[in-house]
Amino acid sequence: MTTADPVVDTDALAWIPLRPGVAFRPLRFARDGYTLQLRVEPGAIIGRHRHTGEVHAYTVSGARELIEAGTVAGAGSYVYEPPGNVDSWRCVGAQPCIVQITLTGRVEYLDAHGAVEAHSDSDTARGAYLDWCRRTGIAPASTLGLAPDGSLAT
Length: 154
Description:
Order of helices and strands: EEEEEEEEEEEEH
CATH class of the domain at 27-120: Mainly Beta
Number of helices: 1
CATH architecture of the domain at 27-120: Sandwich
Number of strands: 12
């Protein structure tokens, strides 16, 4: 049995744009969840959304305002969000906010009436990553839990 190198040099990974002011770098994909780093530029907002599974979020650098809670999670802060949690947040301060997030289930983005208008999950995040790899001509990283064909290895 061979084992992949368990160390991921996050600084060597590229930031993959999701939309203006928001980018991610995947760290690990699994069947019902994933781990990533999310980079949000000052003033950018992560709109109202609901989590169907648990979320563990550690602020690596910068700061983010948890809008509904009215609190700020700065560098070194850990936030746990239980399944069903609804929130939104924004990067505050002069530097980008980088948050390392491990989550299960889906993130459902909500409209003003609470209806789901879009979602993300392990499959959509993996698809965005693989699409970016194809467009840029970069081979998918071998440390992300992917088989050579881009499917989940486990």
